[in-house]
């Protein structure tokens, strides 16, 4: 049973997280998981009716998560099944504060149909994903904004190792960022964009025309959303709507903050804007990442979105 962490548990959590990132199969991971937990992914049993949200970190994970939650219940937030006795963390995470229990162990006990999320690259997903073929929704974001949001989020959490902007930027462009390089991560899922069980979405598409994204996902998931439901979904998936839903979770459940905040501390819901990188990047950094984007995405088709 999930419970709020006491001072001793927070101390242990801080010591664990401060151990720093580690490398697993050529990809860097934060200490909220372990090599043992990641190895478990190879044997995780996938079900055909699973719905998996995959994202690169800080690319709209919780926005899309709430959007999908609302779509599954025609926009009625009170009908969302949230598993509030568990932390709201990805499949590959350990359960805080000790991380000796995997989220996979908890999700394995959920009744079907299950809905869970992950930040791992496509080739590190449970192998059964590509044979059982559950539905996968993938979300990515303009790389400069992803980098900026990762920096702000990482240094806002009052536990764990703090990074200078220069260090995090260098990690981002040299594939040492948590969960791997943005290009490898995004292109890995982009390669599956035409698979019948994969829907590739960008944060910018959601910002520009959320209704159209909902219609695409409605068709992909085989749902039938009413016009009234569409109105409710748009209302509750707005920034204000999500803040109200999360405030109610915190108010109604004694451990609600473990569901609405990272480690129960930092709110998952941030500004949710595009272009925030402009206040963070130097001109040299912008030019460097833009050139990488142009060269690496050239001819992939993803360059239509990011160029």
Task: Explain what this protein looks like in three dimensions.
The protein is α/β, with parallel strands linked by helices and 307 residues long. It has helices at residues 7-17, 35-40, 61-72, 103-107, 129-132, 143-156, 165-173, 182-190, 203-208, 210-221, 227-236, 239-252, 257-260, 283-297; strands at 22-24, 27-29, 51-55, 115-118, 135-140, 198-202, 261-262, 266-267. It has a four-stranded parallel sheet, sandwiched between helices. A two-stranded antiparallel ribbon has the order 1-2. A hairpin with a 2-residue loop joins strand 1 (22-24) and strand 2. The longest helix has 15 residues, at 283-297. The radius of gyration is 19 Å and the shape is globular. The N and C termini lie far apart (46 Å). The mean pLDDT is 88.
Condensed summary:
This protein is α/β, with parallel strands linked by helices and 307 residues long. It has helices spanning 7-17, 35-40, 61-72, 103-107, 129-132, 143-156, 165-173, 182-190, 203-208, 210-221, 227-236, 239-252, 257-260, 283-297, and strands at 22-24, 27-29, 51-55, 115-118, 135-140, 198-202, 261-262, 266-267. The strands form three sheets. Strands 4-3-5-6 form a four-stranded parallel β-sheet, sandwiched between helices.
């Amino acid at each position: 049973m999930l419970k709020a962490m006491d001072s001793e548990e927070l101390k242990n959590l801080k010591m664990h997280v401060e151990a720093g990132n580690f490398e697993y199969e050529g990809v860097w991971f934060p200490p909220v998981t372990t090599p043992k937990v990641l190895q478990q992914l190879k044997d995780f049993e996938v079900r055909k009716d699973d719905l998996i949200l995959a994202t690169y970190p800080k690319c709209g994970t919780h926005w899309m998560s709430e959007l999908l939650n609302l779509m599954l219940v025609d926009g009625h937030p009170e009908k969302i099944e949230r598993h509030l006795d568990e932390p709201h963390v990805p499949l590959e995470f350990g359960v805080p504060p000790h991380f000796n229990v995997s989220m996979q162990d908890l999700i394995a006990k959920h009744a079907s149909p299950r809905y869970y999320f992950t930040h791992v690259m496509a080739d590190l997903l449970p192998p059964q994903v590509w044979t059982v073929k559950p539905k996968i929704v993938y979300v990515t974001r303009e790389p400069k904004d992803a980098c900026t949001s990762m920096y702000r989020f990482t240094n806002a959490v009052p536990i764990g190792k703090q990074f200078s902007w220069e260090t995090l930027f260098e990690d981002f462009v040299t594939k040492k960022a948590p969960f791997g390089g943005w290009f490898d991560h995004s292109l890995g899922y982009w390669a599956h964009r035409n698979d019948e069980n994969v829907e590739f979405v960008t944060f910018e598409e959601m910002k520009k025309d959320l209704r159209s994204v909902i219609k695409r996902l409605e068709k992909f998931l085989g749902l039938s959303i009413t016009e009234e439901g569409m109105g409710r979904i748009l209302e509750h998936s707005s920034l204000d709507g999500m803040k109200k839903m999360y405030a109610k979770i915190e108010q109604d459940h004694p451990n609600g903050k473990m569901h609405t905040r990272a480690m129960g501390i930092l709110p998952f819901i941030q500004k949710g804007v595009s272009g925030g990188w402009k206040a963070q990047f130097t001109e040299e950094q912008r030019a460097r990442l833009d050139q990488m984007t142009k060269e690496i995405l050239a001819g992939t088709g993803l360059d239509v979105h990011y160029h």
